[in-house]
Amino acid sequence: MYSNAARAYFSTKVNTTSQEELVVMLFEAAIKFLEQAKIKIEEKDYQEKGNAISKTLDIIAELDSSLNTERGGEVAENLHALYQFCQSRLLMANLKMDVQIIDEVIGMLKEVGSAFAEVIQSQKLK
Q1: SS3 30
Q2: What is the model's pLDDT at position 14?
Q3: Which domains does the chain have, with CATH numbers?
Q4: Are the C-beta atoms of 10 and 29 separated by less than 8 Å?
Q5: Contact of 106 with 31, CB cutoff 8 Å
Q6: Which band of pLDDT confidence, cut at 50, 70 and 90, is reported for residue 19?
Q7: ∠ CA 112-119-63 to the nearest 5 degrees?
Q8: Considering just the CA atoms, what is the radius of gyration of the chain in Å?
Q9: Residue 57 CA, distance from chain mean position
Q10: Tell me: the pLDDT tens digits for 68-101?
């Protein structure tokens, strides 16, 4: 699927990126997969739609498992609830082929991802 050069680039990118920036990249990837899922619904390519949603569910599960509730307190608890909600909505969207539900989740992921990006940017300025 990817050339050796592309694999090397992605490996270098991941290994030289901070944990915080990796979180932002995960949000971006999840949104990208959901946009692909919407296209696959329109194309009636239901297998690829399911694959794209599954990849997003995996990303959300990874984000959820990386939460530190001891250090993150209420924020981590709220993010956990949000991730659980997004997962349940995506399962429904997958079953119903519902682009509106996918758009709803995209909106939530964009908002949270943007907030993470802003926090990272403000920390870099300090």
Answers
A1: helix
A2: 53
A3: 18-125 (1.20.120.340)
A4: no
A5: yes
A6: confident
A7: 45
A8: 16
A9: 8
A10: 988 989 999 999 999 999 999 999 999 999 999 9
For range 106-125, the mean pLDDT: 90
Q: Count the residues in the chain.
A: 126
Q: Average pLDDT for residues 13-17, to the nearest whole number? A: 58
The residues, any chain, with a CB within 8 Å of residue 65's CB and separated by 6 or more, are none
Residue whose C-alpha is closest to residue 63's, from 78, 50, 48: 78
Q: Which residues of 86-119 are buried (b: 16+ CB within 10 A; e: fewer)?
A: bbebbeebbeeebbebbebbbeebeebbeebbee
List Cα–Cα distances, 81 to 63, 67, 73, 76, 100, in angstroms. Answer: 12, 11, 13, 9, 21
Structure tokens, 112: 């949270």
pLDDT of residue 126: 65
